[in-house]
Design brief:
TIM Barrel; 10-stranded mixed β-sheet; 3-stranded antiparallel β-sheet; globular; binds iron/sulfur cluster
Amino acid sequence: MSIETSIGLETGQPYPYRRVELVEPDWRRLPGWSDVTEAEWRSAQWQRSHCVKNVAQLREVFGDLVEDRFYEDLTRDQAEQATMSMLVPPQMLNTMVPYAGLDGRALGPGSLTDALYADPVRHYMIPVASDRRTDWASHPHASRDSLHEHDMWVAEGLTHRYPTKVLAEMLPTCPQYCGHCTRMDLVGNSTPAVEKLKFFVKPVDRHAAMLDYLRRTPSVRDVVVSGGDVANMPWPRLEAFLTDLLAIENIRDIRLATKALIGLPQHWLQDDVRAGVERVGRLARDRGVSLAIHTHANHAHSVTPMVAEAAGAMLSAGVRDVRNQGVLLDGVNADPHALLDLCFRLLDGAQIMPYYFYLCDMIPSAEHWRISVRDAQRLQHHIMGYLPGFATPRIVCDVPFVGKRWVHQVAEYDHVRGISSWTKNYRTTIEADDAEALTRTYPYYDPIHTLPAEGQAWWAEQNLTARR
Ligand code: SF4
């Protein structure tokens, strides 16, 4: 659906706001979980041990409600193009086809196939071969580690790109793997298409080296403690790292990155984790440091009462804010209504602050998800004015060698070839001696299939090898 056609005029406003109560879809509607109890569902351990990791396990959940053609399509994608292996917690899978069976129509063999194909959460968590483009599956300039985070490691896993903040990749795993993951180079298990990089240094030594760098670098005040997903770190180890971090005088902001708050909220509801967050929250408060959680929801269906409960638990435990950083994905949320629905559910229902939406990065096999900078600018325009200003997310392009730029900050833009140029006002750590770092422009590329015919023809003539 195009951005323009998706805007109805039902209430005289392009977007008709209505408060919506959050709903936890009944997992018992799906054959594989018909006798799963409430206690089991609320157990983080049960959720982790029942994650769907392969086609056979997905078939056990949906049974014959989904036709073989879907499973075959998925098998083909896993074998040929997937950059991430499959890992979907039940909580997350349950937000796919959430209304199945609730419309009075009986669920029968094959009845969920089309709905599952069309489902927005499925579209990015369980990509299938027929989702991908066959013309330009990858952009010619797509690359593993498209943001060059490894190039900017100052200790293994510690990316220092911006002047005052760093990203600490604590571990290379998550409780769920998103098909579009920008860290596909490192995160998750290898797939037939992508042999993953490995950390060489032992975790304890890696984390010590990160802390050592931060103690030696007083210009850094802000640490994103990420991964992967910190929910996969045993809590005592994470707490020890955070406690050491809080002892460093220059650190004033700490953000814990965890999509598990959306995909496996049960993790953050465990008593020991809540008690641990409370201890760290108290320490942060005593030291005047802001401790926040950054999570990652891409569609309104993912925001359920369980997610709201987990976000509320974190706020009660002393986390100052829970913020959402979503990714704009065609077929998932690249539509003003979908974005506003998601933002209002986060804000009204779950006390989660809409913060950023990123353009999907230029990784291999992602062209079917990516949208152009121009469409991102339109989306930003269409969502302005509905949410409070402090909760209106910024749509940003993470430009290689630059960092996040608001989509309207583009310096030059060739709409025909889909090449935008960006500038920056700081040096990354690999540009200390680069005299032109602040004056040159840095390119970003729109998906070729979104370009006018002239632009597509130009790219075809370039004879660049990444075309698939
Ligand atoms: S949770 Fe984040 S790091 Fe993990 S797979 Fe998804 S996008 Fe990648």
